[in-house]
Write a structure and sequence with these properties.
The chain folds into two domains: 250 residues, Spore Coat Polysaccharide Biosynthesis Protein SpsA, Chain A, CATH 3.90.550.10; 88 residues, no CATH class. 50% of the residues lie in helices and 15% in strands. It is an alpha/beta fold. Helix 1 crosses helix 6 and helix 6 packs across helix 11.
Length: 382
């Protein structure tokens, strides 16, 4: 990552300065009455002639009434406006597919997908459009300025953002943020999207790259969102996201990870290691430690001044240190220069739990919203 960043940072900038194309904003919603009016105002403040396509996943609150009311009060906010309604809720990816299939009569132009609970900073969409002056760019993603995140969440985000930026500089990243991402209509194969899984943003980025385009993040394009207050809710959010990424990596590992994909193939194989192989290896290590302590419980501690005694003392010290670092990270506490180790252990726990959830046959592509996030969005300013 350091090498890629050092060698390519100067070249990682939009090629265009006044590039413009037809822009369609895809806004999937489900029970967003708390935030929808603020979201519409935020999009209108981008000051672009956009075509807004709202896809409603069978909301049971007043979301659509509020949308209609806001549009009637601001008839000139968007170049055009359309609402698609689903008969039943089937998850965000299914809503995105429905919107894209409806939009398929427009073979050219750009699509921006954004979430109702994310507010775009001013000028973000115009800046993202400038990347498409480069004919090789197929998708561009923004990065979050997350409010209310715990210490270990910020460390986690910083590490992964650095990785996504480095991957973007040298080739492409398979992971973009669905809260704000943009792609060429012609660059995405909609049939690549799997509606029974989440991580629709990563599915889109990977599909775009497999079609021969680049998928990148722009470190200067930012949106604001809010982290859940409770640690348990943050973990639930990350487990859901982890499962979607893991399922994508498993589905695409043979096609996207093959050596013919060049540097991107290496990137994809690395992500398979980070998200699947590493948590499985750590699970084996933890199981081995438990088994070792079981043998000690049965047969007693090895005699002093023996190799076995020294080995067990060393392993016991390592295990104690890992447990302390993991627990402190889990509680949102800093461990100084070792905080990254604690954060890695905590993230491996969540990835392992996501793998177990998948192995049990449970899909998290339809989830309950974090209501405190939407309540606190009313206080956010961008």
């Amino acid at each position: 990552m350091y090498s890629w960043d050092r060698d390519h940072r100067q070249q990682h900038a939009p090629m265009g300065t006044n590039h413009s194309e037809r822009l369609t904003v895809l806004l999937p919603v489900w029970n967003e009455a708390t935030v929808i009016e603020k979201k519409l105002a935020n999009l209108a403040a981008q000051n672009l002639p956009m075509h807004l396509l709202v896809v409603d996943s069978a909301s049971t609150d007043t979301t659509l009434e509020l949308v209609d009311g806001w549009i009637s009060r601001h008839p000139n906010a968007f170049a055009s406006f359309e609402v698609l309604q689903m008969e039943q809720r089937r998850g965000k990816t299914a809503a995105v597919i429905k919107g894209l299939n409806h939009h398929s009569q427009q073979p050219e132009g750009l699509i921006c997908m954004t979430d109702a609970d994310a507010l775009l900073e001013r000028g973000v969409l115009r800046r993202m459009m400038q990347w498409f002056a480069d004919p090789m760019i197929g998708a561009v993603g923004a990065l979050p300025r997350r409010q209310g995140a715990r210490a270990e969440e910020r460390l986690h985000r910083e590490a992964w953002e650095a990785m996504r930026i480095a991957e973007s500089m040298v080739d492409s990243t398979p992971f973009l943020e669905g809260s704000c991402m943009m792609w060429r209509t012609s660059a995405l194969a909609v049939d690549d999207l799997f509606d029974q899984a989440n991580a629709d943003d990563a599915q889109i980025a990977t599909s775009v790259r497999r079609q021969g385009w680049r998928a990148i993040v722009d470190p200067q394009a930012r949106f604001v969102d809010v982290a859940p207050e409770a640690a348990s809710e943050q973990r639930r959010q990350k487990i859901r996201r982890a499962q979607g990424l893991q399922r994508l990596l498993l589905r695409e590992r043979r096609r996207a990870g093959q050596r013919s994909q060049g540097v991107f193939g290496r990137i994809f194989r690395r992500q398979v290691h980070f998200h699947i192989a590493a948590p499985l290896a750590l699970t084996v290590a933890v199981s081995s430690a438990v088994l070792r302590w079981g043998f000690i419980g049965l047969y007693g501690w090895p005699a002093t001044l023996t190799l076995a005694n020294s080995m067990h003392l060393g392993l016991a010290g390592l295990e104690a240190a890992c447990i302390v670092l993991w627990w402190r990270s889990r509680q949102g506490k800093s461990s100084g220069p070792l905080s990254l180790v604690g954060q890695w252990l905590a993230s491996m726990e969540l990835l392992g739990r996501a793998l177990i959830t998948t192995a049990r046959g449970r899909s998290l592509h339809m989830w309950e919203q974090h209501q405190d996030v939407r309540q606190r969005m009313s206080d956010v300013e961008v």
